[in-house]
Amino acid sequence: MELDLSPKLAKKVYGGDGGSYSAWCPSELPMLREGNIGAAKLALGKNGFALPRYSDSSKVAYVLQGVGVAGIILPESEEKVVAIKKGDAIALPFGVITWWYNKDDTELEVLFMGDTSKGHKAGQFTDFFLTGTNGIFTGFTTDFVKRAWDVDDDTAKALIGNQQGQGIVKLDAKVKMPEPKPDHRKGMALNCEEAPLDTDIKNAGNVVLLTTKNLPLVGQVGLGADLVRLEGNAMCSPGFSCDSALQVTYIVKGSGRLQVVGVNGKRVLETIVKPGNLLIVPRFFVVSKIADPEGLSWFSIITTPNPVFTHLAGSIGAWKAISPELLQAAFKVPAETEKLFRSKRTNDAIFFPPSQ
């Protein structure tokens, strides 16, 4: 049976007054299970607080909108209290405890994508909460809590039962939360909207790569990522991951046409992508996008920390490296056609401006 590659939207899993947590389900997007990839979104309203938790999967977090605070506790390390804003990417290795807080009027929205190969369920994140009605304290008996944390009976019962929220709560405006520290951002977060561009093609598009060079923690996560912004009516060259990595793409802004070609030259997907869509391109399949007039932006993770791509068109396209005689034989075309083919796209790399 062929896999359904069509883009999907996230569905709400839980939430309340403080915000909501949504996820993509492997039953609706089978490539999640096939590729051992998880994807979810956290949305926090004003004074929304995502309770401390750790996950069974390594992830990359990307702030889609808003400003807020993230608490990050690496194993055997002090808490990092990081100010976050739209465009920030954060690498979250195994064993990291995190909490998230929004004191602003604008909703804080954070995307999570990661590797579930070592998780409890293929294609899904499983979070373990430290507090709340589904937190680890509720699973232990009072005597275990008293003994482990050396507290009296009343304190143990308060630790177990006082927090009646689950996953996300809304705090009273008077509650004082830790203030972010500027030096805690270093090495923890990279703003993809402000970082130096790795590729910038005039009137076509640009890309920022998230690798071990600009955010070393992605090496521990085992994932790479990028933010691509395509200008109106511009095209992204057909290409594929040549190191057997999967590419998981979330549409951040705008819309456009997308085509994917797979085995035996079969077009396996042709669709319009819009904000909120998530899609996964199978290994070695070729994908290309053309932006609508308002442009198209997407954030992707790649299942290797330093991905390598082969582009089939443009000045760095694979065809440019192939000898003229071989091209003529492969396409079964005369020399004149081969010369015309080779003479095109000599200046444009991976993004092509709109046709004049």
Question: Layout of helices and strands, plus pairs?
Answer:
Blueprint: E1 11-16, E2 19-23, H1 31-35, E3 37-44, E4 48-55, E5 58-65, E6 67-73, E7 79-85, E8 88-92, E9 97-102, E10 108-115, E11 127-129, H2 136-139, H3 142-149, H4 153-161, E12 168-170, E13 189-191, E14 199-201, E15 205-210, H5 218-221, E16 224-230, E17 235-241, E18 247-261, E19 267-273, E20 278-281, E21 286-302, E22 309-311, H6 324-331, H7 335-343, E23 351-352
Describe what is shown at a glance.
The chain has helices at residues 31-35, 136-139, 142-149, 153-161, 218-221, 324-331, 335-343, and strands at 11-16, 19-23, 37-44, 48-55, 58-65, 67-73, 79-85, 88-92, 97-102, 108-115, 127-129, 168-170, 189-191, 199-201, 205-210, 224-230, 235-241, 247-261, 267-273, 278-281, 286-302, 309-311, 351-352. It has 356 residues and is mainly β.
Tell me about this structure.
The protein is mostly beta strands. Helices cover 13% and strands 42% of the residues. It contains seven helices and 23 strands. The protein has helices spanning 31-35, 136-139, 142-149, 153-161, 218-221, 324-331, 335-343; strands at residues 11-16, 19-23, 37-44, 48-55, 58-65, 67-73, 79-85, 88-92, 97-102, 108-115, 127-129, 168-170, 189-191, 199-201, 205-210, 224-230, 235-241, 247-261, 267-273, 278-281, 286-302, 309-311, 351-352. Strands 14, 15, 16, 17, 18, 19, 20, 21, 22 and 23 form a ten-stranded antiparallel β-sheet that branches. A seven-stranded antiparallel β-sheet has the order 1-2-3-10-5-8-13. Strands 4, 6, 7, 9, 11 and 12 form a six-stranded antiparallel β-sheet that branches. A hairpin with a 2-residue loop joins strand 1 (11-16) and strand 2 (19-23). Helix 6 (324-331) packs across helix 7 (335-343). The protein is elongated. The relative contact order is 0.16. The mean pLDDT is 91.
